Amino acid sequence: MKRILFLFFYLFLIIIPVSSIGFATSISDWKTYETDDFIIFYPQGYEAQAKETLYYLSKYKSKVDTLTGNDNKIKTRIVIQDSGLLTDGEAEPISVKISIFTCNPELFSNMISYDSWLRLVSVHEYTHISQMTNSSGTASSLTKIFGNYFSPNIHIPLWMMEGITVYSESQVSPYEGRLNGGYFDTLIASKAAEGKLPSILEANYEHNHFPFGQYYLYGGQFFKYLAATYGEEKITQFFNEYGSYYWTPIIGDFFPALGIDKAAKKIYGKTFPQLFEEWQLYETSKYKDWKISGTAVVKNKLGGSIYGLNYAKKKLYYFKVKRITPGPFRYFELYNLVEYDLENNKERILKTFSEPWNGMIQIVNNKLYFSLLDKSGENAILHSYDLKTNQIQKILKDDFNDFTALDDEIIIYVKKNKDKYGSEIWKYSNKDKQKIGITLELISEMKSYRDKFIVVSKEAVGSYGIKYLNIDDLSLETIIDTPYAEANMNLIGDKLYYNSNYQGFTTTYQYDLYKKKLVEFTDGNNSIRGIQALDYKDNLYFTSISAEEINLYKTPLNYEPVPIPETENVESDVDLADLDIEIKEGNGLSKSLNYLLKPNVRLFPSLLAGQDALGLNSYSIDYSDDGLDYYFNSQMLLPFTISHATPDDDDEERETKLDVFLPLSSNVILDYNTNFSEDAIPGIRFLLPSVRQNLALYLQTNVNSDGVNSELNYSYLFDNSSIILQGSKFEDFEKDADIRGFDFDDFDNGYQGSLEYLYKLAEIKKGLWNPNIFIGDIYASVFVDYFNDTDLDNEESAYGYELSFEIGMAQQIHFVPMIGVAVSDDDTEKYLGFKILGFF
Question: Could you tell me if 580 and 122 are in contact, meaning their C-beta atoms sit under 8 angstroms apart?
């Protein structure tokens, strides 16, 4: 074993210098655009995205600040990033920083609607910064002294934090933002009609809820109601009032009566639980007659959904997503590729995946073609499933948006053009990729039709529309392009099916490509979301949202002709010169390092703490009994991470560490850590995941001491429980003695193991508003722990029973407290423990 690990160590030394070159040189590629209010950090080659982001931030800053009531003079830093198909935005109020991922979100789920992704995400994330840094009076003085942690407006529930940003993003354009996309309205209507709108605590805390991230949904709809009922100016008054409550960072999170409710009573005359109940009654009355007009064909359990629906030869094909909850705050989704026989009304699972689906299913020559995201989420992998042989094959991997499979097994696929706005068109055949060209519009969906292609595409500013694509000259010809987004298209013969929300809710439309006529399905209207419509025996098959899942329905195929909504002119020019602001260009690395001199935490809870603008270097200086402890971490030479810190023991020497984390693939990871004295430890990790099983093997050796450590971790996930097996064997390698409920000394030679069965005991989903606490699910486990210290010829074991709780507390904290009883040969011990999972 040692010989194998030493050979691995030498291989490690060879690989690391070669692989790190690319990381090191990229640091110097960062540039900046800077104004009085913003500084944009962007990698070279992303000038256009940086300028567009700066344009929207500068243009809408005043509008956002008016909404949040913030008149403080602060400069926000923004970091532009590109991580393939990953799309997101993040706001950090402590450091006044925004991170923006440039990839445009797909519309397959209809969860979001936008004319410009960079505009929507810029407004959304800046609203976070503006709202959470609004402080005045004594509270403002405290933030100047200690940092933004003492800004009262940071200390609000998650549904308020995300609700105001969803509301704000939806005020820029009637066709942009989650409140204008139809999906949120459909969700609220379904829940209100079935009497399943959440409590104010359920709206806020993570738990097994449909949909995940529910605080965006309920918070956005609640602020929409507040603005319509009491006026938008009341929202501003509330944030201004609450921003002066200097005591809320200490006590207001736990007791809303002393914080947000005190401000709400002054502005609205009611507490937030009263306002929330008022909103619930409004929605319940509004949607009392709401129902899905159709017969359920396939029903899911809580959190289940159906996507990618398609039809061929009297059968439906789709992805049926199943949610499993094997442990506290452990939520996973399994993606079943399903065939539904319309003759005998039976489902057949063809294959189950753990990777998320990415787009629609295509059917060509008795093969299903579909794509799944890889483990990183940055790339998609195209698969085919042979319906005759039941064989599955991986075809290609790339960061593509969509594809179309032709009869001769040629794949045409589209991916984002990174140099400027638009899409690259690629051809894949016989394991060879060939770039065809670039379109000026961004393409999100693609289907082949006769000698052309039909795509869903959009200009830099404007909605997604449906167009012909001529593959020879890459020209686009409009089929349907309205101010609303047209998406989720399917093609059966000359009939084009797609979704849009012309009437305020997502609905299925059919366009006859030959007759150029548009019809709307009258049954199933105002209840359909993210579907492909299919005609079979005079039935329309569609997916629709119920209160807790997405199901498959059928309804008689009734429709009526409708006119195509008229096109509106939208502002599309993005020109910073129009804003009359001074812009300075700079070096990103030097500007970033300057932020190290501006600590964002001061005196409490740390003496000093900060980081550079790019997040590559961070430090903290803390109080201790022996004086001051400090810690510095640098990732400037990724995959190398260098840290320097005060040691935990009484040794006066400072400890410097080097850590390396280098994934060779999604299944093999190399690592290395050293303190440049006693320890120099390379390791290799093998990950062998399957749909419900996870197996990990980890091998380490301490080069300085000839120590060896080997670990095995295995888990099997059931729907509401899991089996967990852990074991390790080591020589001259210090390890903790892990026996729950008992304390034993560390040991250097031996082996240990643990076997546990964890299962859901109860679903509570209740709590208190004052003090603010919420209990989700309760889990129980039976376990056996064991270790053998071969140096002392001592073995110990214990078995026991443990309860663990999903707990939310103080508006933003999530943790798992545990209470258990452990029994050994000599004693019985009770014990407590906890794991903190999230804190803002």
Answer: no
